[in-house]
């Protein structure tokens, strides 16, 4: 019986056989996961028709703890410490407006921080690596490098939290226009660098792919 | 400092400023500041739709809804502040 699978599916299967990270990994479908191996529910705008996402990363969720704690304190502390009573000289209708404004600003802050974390992603595909950085709502930077332009990969991890939660940086030196792409505070940096290394090696051994 | 502030608004204080003037100034300052915040809320809605176009992820509709809710809230509070009696 002839093999009727499309060429890109066959290439992916071959890739999965050769890559220990992909072979041992479990595909992820979680909306909030920071380490998504072969996700089926994620796409990006400049994705080619035959290009498949192998790894979709965000910063480890632990990086959000600081602003979550700060937001909770801002929600709880003013009423607990009766800080709103400072406004008691104002008419009650305006006090209500200020209270509502306070909670709306906190809601806006939480939404903004979550969005920046959620959309700052690092993508490894069958063709390239992409780094989408949203520094704030107003500043965005997208860097990418083809797999055949990757020269060196370094993973680093340091500190108590990074050791406990297994996250760190993966620095990728490239021969492309952007000399360095850094995946910051990503989960399982060793696995990430191993996968990119395997892809680069495979790409070198099979340059016509 | 807080005591000084309270003293200004104390009806028996020699430092007393006419309350309507204080309230009106406070209200105008708040309206101006919050108008800037409304612009920020509009930018947020716009940026999230651009982000969703860059990376299509499962929570995009929820986040677009959250930013829209935030914008509606910001406009609502600005209007409430405008009509609030001083």
How would you characterize the overall build of this protein?
- The complex is a heterodimer of chains A (209) and B (86).
- By secondary structure, chain A is an alpha+beta fold.
- Chain A contains six helices and nine strands.
- Chain A has helices at residues 7-18, 20-24, 65-80, 92-119, 160-165, 189-205, and strands at residues 35-37, 43-44, 53-57, 121-125, 128-134, 140-146, 150-156, 167-174, 180-187.
- In chain A, the strands form two sheets. Chain A has a five-stranded antiparallel β-sheet with strand order 1-3-4-5-6. A three-stranded antiparallel β-sheet of chain A has the order 7-8-9.
- In chain A, a hairpin with a 5-residue loop joins strand 5 (128-134) and strand 6 (140-146).
- The model of chain A has no long low-confidence stretch (mean pLDDT 85).
- Chain B has 86 residues and is an all-alpha fold.
- Helices cover 79% and strands 2% of the residues of chain B.
- Chain B has helices at residues 2-9, 19-54, 60-83; one strand spanning 55-56.
- In chain B, helix 2 (19-54) packs antiparallel against helix 3.
- Chain B is rod-shaped and about 60 Å long.
- The mean pLDDT of chain B is 84.
- The interface between A and B is large, with 35 and 37 residues.
SSE layout and pairings?
The complex is a heterodimer of chains A (209) and B (86).
Chain A: H1 7-18, H2 20-24, E1 35-37, E2 43-44, E3 53-57, H3 65-80, H4 92-119, E4 121-125, E5 128-134, E6 140-146, E7 150-156, H5 160-165, E8 167-174, E9 180-187, H6 189-205
Antiparallel strand pairs in A: 1-3, 3-4, 4-5, 5-6, 7-8, 8-9
Chain B: H1 2-9, H2 19-54, E1 55-56, H3 60-83
């Amino acid at each position: 019986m002839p093999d009727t699978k499309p060429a890109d599916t066959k290439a992916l299967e071959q890739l999965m056989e050769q890559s220990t990270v992909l072979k041992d990994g479990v595909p992820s479908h979680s909306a909030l996961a920071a380490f998504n191996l072969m996700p089926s529910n994620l796409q990006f705008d400049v994705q080619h028709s035959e290009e498949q996402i192998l790894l979709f990363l965000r910063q480890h969720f632990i990086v959000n703890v600081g602003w979550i704690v700060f937001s909770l304190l801002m929600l709880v502390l003013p009423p607990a410490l009766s800080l709103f009573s400072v406004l008691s000289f104002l008419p009650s209708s305006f006090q209500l407006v200020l209270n509502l404004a306070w909670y709306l600003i906190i809601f806006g802050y939480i939404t903004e921080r979550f969005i920046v974390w959620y959309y700052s992603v690092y993508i490894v595909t069958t063709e390239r690596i992409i780094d989408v950085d949203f520094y704030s709502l107003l500043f965005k930077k997208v860097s990418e490098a083809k797999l055949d332009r990757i020269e060196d990969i370094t993973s680093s991890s340091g500190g108590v939290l990074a050791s406990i939660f297994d996250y760190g940086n993966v620095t990728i030196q490239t021969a492309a226009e952007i000399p360095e792409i850094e995946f910051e505070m990503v989960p399982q940096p060793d696995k990430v660098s191993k996968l990119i290394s395997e892809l680069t090696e495979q790409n070198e051994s099979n340059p016509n792919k | 400092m807080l005591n000084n502030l309270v003293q200004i608004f104390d009806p028996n204080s020699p430092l007393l400023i006419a309350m309507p003037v204080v309230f009106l100034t406070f209200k105008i300052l708040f309206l101006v500041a919050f108008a800037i915040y409304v612009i920020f809320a509009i930018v947020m809605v716009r940026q999230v739709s651009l982000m969703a176009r860059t990376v299509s992820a499962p929570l995009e509709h929820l986040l677009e809804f959250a930013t829209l809710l935030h914008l509606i809230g910001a406009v609502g509070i600005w209007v409430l502040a405008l009509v609030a009696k001083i």
